Amino acid sequence: MNWIIDIGTNTLTKVVGIGRAFLMLTGALIAFPQWKNVRLTIKQIYIVGVQSLLIIMVSGLFIGMVMALQGYTILVDYGAEGSLGPMVSLSLLRELGPVVTGLLFAGRAGSALTAEIGLMKATEQLSSLEMMAVDPLRRIVAPRMWAGVIAMPMLALIFSAIGILGGHLVGVEWLGVDSGSYWSIMQATVEWDKDVVNGVIKSIVFAIVVTWIAIFKGYDAIPTSEGISLATTQTVVLSSLTVLGLDFVLTALMFGIN
Amino acid sequence: MTTRKTELMVGLFVILTIAAGLLLALKVVNQGFSNNESTYTLYAKFDNIGGLQTRSAVKVGGVTIGRVESIDLDPEDFNPVVMISLSDKYNNFPDTSSASILTSGLLGEQYIGFQPGFAFDDFVVLADGDYIQDTKSALVLEDLIGQFLFSRNSE
Q1: Interface TM-score (ipTM) > 0.85
Q2: Which among A28, A78, A94, A123 is placed 20 to 30 Å from A216, CA to CA?
């Protein structure tokens, strides 16, 4: 009988967790129209966005360069190295930009958010805020939530743009693909509403999911050192898996059926 | 003072994002034939459209002047009807013009090659909603091979 009880307990914990996560999300999102929180949000955008710029830009540059290198060696066999531009730009805009930014964001900013909020909980700063009649959802959670949702699509856009420039660097400057065909075939293939906008929509969805998971894991962490380290690990693992899984669903919805 | 520095960095971040968006909008994205340019519509009926798709280019002498808007099947004679929208800049093609489905390069995508007809003194201009009478269907490789084998057998 005990294992049935275990299943029941586990299910209840999960359901209660999901419910608490939704309550936290609604509490945080509704709390935004407070103008005194804008300054806090800007500070958080600096922490999760600006400080992630370096890793995002370097990764974007190298991923673009590697894709140009790999794509060139395959395409040149068919004399189709002019198609390097659309190959690099479409895969960056549609997939790699949002997904890799989501993964890096989960590792770089998400884990930091979880650890920060988890430690706030462990050192009872959140309880102290409540004692002072300051709602921690508004003061702590909402600015971080909005900062993540605003900053990540911007990072994804920068990632894609830098990647395309990196592809140009390797493809055109080094391997000698014609610069005109790199850009013109790209322009003939890439469409604003289909490719760029869908990529941005993807990155907004990933931003909401990653930031939500990161903040909730911190907010819900067991207030001990082990609890925080466990929550941080869970944030990175869970949000990476969610990004990859959601990416498949979104791709199927956006590009699956013509 | 730290707040000002933070705000400065966030401002730079926003500017960088706008720069990235501009790069994508101006250099990467297809801007050749945007929706706000005024167009007119022609129809062309083919026997076989091969691999033609919506958004395929319509070219005169290699210059893109329009795009395929939609492809449907005529419910009466079961021939594909292609609706193409052409730029209003080029609105005086004679009605003797012909459209054929061509392939760019050996393995490239298919497009409609538009051949302006000879302009007589009293030629009729193709207007919005007209059908292009003279059309040539796409070359389908399997058909070509079939014809080739057939002609060899009959020799």
Answers
A1: no
A2: A94
